[in-house]
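Hi F.,

I've been meaning to write this up properly since the lab meeting, where we talked about keeping a consistent format for the predictions we share between groups. The idea is simple: the sequence comes first, exactly as it goes in, then the structure tokens exactly as they come out, then a line or two of notes. No screenshots and no reformatting. I'm using this chain as the first example so we have something concrete to point to.
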Amino acid sequence: MRGRRPRIKGFSYQGEFAYFLTICAAEHRPLFLDCELARATAAQFLQDAMAYRFAVPAYVVMSDHTHWVVEGLSDDSALRPFVK
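Output, unedited:
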């Protein structure tokens, strides 16, 4: 398993900032070859983005991971709880 990339020490990850996210399936299993699961996962992520006040201008679902560009829409857009 790869380690996490370093985060910016002291940065709150809250507010009107843009982020590029990569989210991997457990053990990099190719779960998203199942089109219905890929659609359901994307739909849930988009629904959560609205609830946490993030815009999603672009995303792609790959076989074992997803890439997302997300933008905070307000001062209270908090990335950590959204991604969790």
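Notes:
The helical segments are 35-51, 79-83.
The longest strand covers residues 54-61.

If this format works for you, I'll send the rest the same way.

G.
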